[in-house]
Amino acid sequence: MDLSTLPHSVLGLFSGSKLVLLFTIACLLAPPLYYLYRYRSSIKARVKEIEKSVSLVKVVRNKNASKEKNRVICMELDPTFVKENSTWSMMSLGQYLSQLEPAEQSGFNHLFLQKELEITMGKFLLKTLGDTYGAALLPILGAGSVAGSIAVLSNKISKFLAKCILPDDNEADAAFDPMSFDLSLMEVASFVNLYQKVITNPADGPSPLEYLSRGENASGPLAYDLGDEDYFPTTFDLSDFAKYVTMMEDRILEKEGQYDPYDRSFPSPTPINARLLPGLHLGKGDLKYTHTKREGIEHRLICVLLNKLSHNYYNLSQKGNLEDCFKVVCNEKQCLFPEELIQALVDCGHRVEVCPRVILTNFGMQICVKEDDGSFTYIPTAVLMRTGIERTSDGRPAYFAAPHGGMDINISGPLIGKGKRPAWLQFYVSIGGLCCFHPDEDQDAPWAAKTSLADIYSHDDSIRAIRMCAIVSVTFSRIATQFNLPFGGYGILGMCNDSATLIDFALRGQTNAYPLLSTGRYLNHIVSYLIKLMEELKAGCAELQPAVSDILCLIKSTSQLPSDLHISPATLIGTSSRYEASYNLNVFQSTADAKAILREMADTAKEYLE
After folding, report:
1. Which residues contact 564 (CB under 8 A, 6 or more apart)?
2. Spatial separation of the C-alpha atoms in residues 86 and 82, rounded to whole Å
3. Is the pLDDT reported for residue 81 higher than 90?
């Protein structure tokens, strides 16, 4: 190359001193450039490794896996229950988990599996517990937010699931119901009361008393009472019952675009995570409701009427006029209170049965497995917690599956409950924020069967029970309104069981309900507000005197109600008996085991205390 042809500025770079400078700079930059290149190559290799690991995080279900291999004990179903319902396709959660294994054994990364499962479980729990029971239940895991509590729980579950899936990890074999909440009833009550101290309802929302006057804790276009007398009258003639059912059906059709009055299906289940939990779905599979959609609307309407009539006790306690009270006309009889409406229905040919009942609940965590042929295998689930009782010999705790209980009212006749099944109503305090009568249609499945906690009441006791329901509804709503309690007092004034048990105990002087979680602080408030209501109604008209008499019975029952928060040897006998009655149906093996533990501890107590 002829350098003489280059520009003088370029030739200047190759002069002696400048050439030495360029060479020096090159020598100084070479090592860092080399290591930067190596680092970049290493990063690329690491990214490829991560992508490979992520792509390998796939789980398959091997239904032919050996029963002995990696057997997981988790919400095991009671063998007798499974045998008695052999026509149903069921499996335990542990049985499903035992069938899972990595799609590819080589290069499978335990950490990636656990982290992905943690995200999956967090999303699942937030969607179920967070939207339904999470706001009340999850804060008992700590004073943090619901999201933070879900993160802790999902981390715990994801570690367990990862151990279940990996075939070379035997720790899962020895686990016993790891999906349970490791909390005693006393701890639950303590944190619920703590939650009440730091969380309150927004002051601008409708109060429980306002909701009770509307007949339901609903608002918006699908609420029955929109505040328009032309749509929902202050005097409701029961001969127009079908008319108002049809009007609600029309509004549902207009809002949702479709409506089948005879449909009994649940929403279609959705996959939780097809890659990590193959076949597992959130939902009820192809189960059916116990009643049709039209029957559900009928149940809702009769509950609205009963609740509005219940509110009349509050109106009259505040010196309201009879003329201003809501009324229902049934068979030409004007009804002012819910027990009068029930009596009027009996008089015109209806059969009414009232009885406290209980059922297992999973707070929306219903899961199933979709099989290759499109059918579903059901996985009964529950929220398991400690009773606070442990067997002394081996320290093994007794667990209970969270129940839902209430005062059942079944009505059948020419107008209400004229289908294959009676109309199912139930009185209880709801997580939705109102203690009142609720529609009670549910899934039609053996694990959702109800357990009666007493014989069906006589007619006279049934009428008194309905009256007491109205009184308890007004009392709970007044306290929740006065103290601005979250969830209308649910969990603070008591759970669903407690609200109905007050009435059963007042009628029979005993109860078979378990667990009972009312705390002393608010039991005192309940008694005080019952006394206040009694004194207010004493000065009223003659129609109020039966209520005054029944309030006195409720005051006594509230004062004497047993509690499962403070367990002692003296209370073990009654606790064991009530547990046996409430869990007459053994869906889970842990329930049968708990019965045996409680029975053993109660027998010891009987030997030395009776």
Report:
1. 185, 387, 388, 514, 515, 516, 517, 575
2. 6
3. yes
